Automatic annotation (TrEMBL):
It comes from Halomonas dongshanensis. Keywords: Glycosyltransferase, Transferase. This is Hypoxanthine-guanine phosphoribosyltransferase. InterPro entries: HGPRT, PRTase-like, PRTase_dom. The keyword Disulfide bond does not apply. NCBIfam families: PRK09162.1.
């Protein structure tokens, strides 16, 4: 067996072990219910505004996909890619990979992401939207992590239905070392 194949198998075993030992903090049923509540609130606020939704890649992909199918009004979708984690467990400097294509000027904008942790990425994206002269800017995140380390004191998402304790979490868009974004719920590894 080649060294590359051996490393892949060790990684596979390691990732399976992480999931097997993880604590399920929020079940898939609870996530689905939270997305229903979020969709209703967004519909009430923006159902007649022709908004544009910007998915924050990669974390926001699953949340955005599940959220958009619950919205029964016309909207546009785009994405942007700004990250601080780059497959690491701790965030670093903000890195912009892709800027959005649909212009924000004069538009009602909704930024969709997986989690509001410290908020440095979200704060930078909000500043970008302001500079782009969006008519209004709202944020939708699946999970808000409860702690007092927000990049901007008091930073809250406009739409958020779930909170988690101050632990490293993965699943439903959030990753563990690049893996398990596809986990059906919100999980925390033992010891983190």
């Amino acid at each position: 067996m080649s060294k590359l194949n051996q490393e892949a198998l060790e990684s596979l075993d390691s990732m399976r072990e992480v999931m097997a030992d993880a604590d399920c903090l929020i079940s898939q049923a609870e996530v689905e219910s939270a997305l229903d509540r979020m969709a209703q609130a967004i519909t009430d606020d923006l159902g007649d505004k022709l908004p544009v939704f910007y998915c924050v890649m990669n974390g926001g992909l699953i949340t955005t996909g599940h959220l958009l199918t619950r919205l029964g009004f016309p909207l546009e979708v785009d994405y942007l890619h700004a990250t601080r984690y780059r497959n690491e467990l701790r965030g670093g400097e903000l890195f912009w990979r892709v800027s959005p294509e649909i212009p924000m000027a004069g538009r009602h904008v909704v930024i969709v992401d997986d989690i509001l942790d410290e908020g440095a990425t979200l704060s930078a994206i909000l500043e970008y939207c302001k500079e782009a002269q969006a008519a209004s800017i709202r944020t939708a995140v699946l999970v808000d992590k409860c702690h007092d380390r927000k990049a901007v004191p008091g930073l809250k998402a406009d739409y958020c239905s779930l909170e988690v304790a101050d632990r490293y979490v993965f699943g439903f868009g959030m990753d563990y070392k690049g893996y398990w974004r596809n986990a059906p719920g919100i999980f925390a590894p033992k010891g983190l």
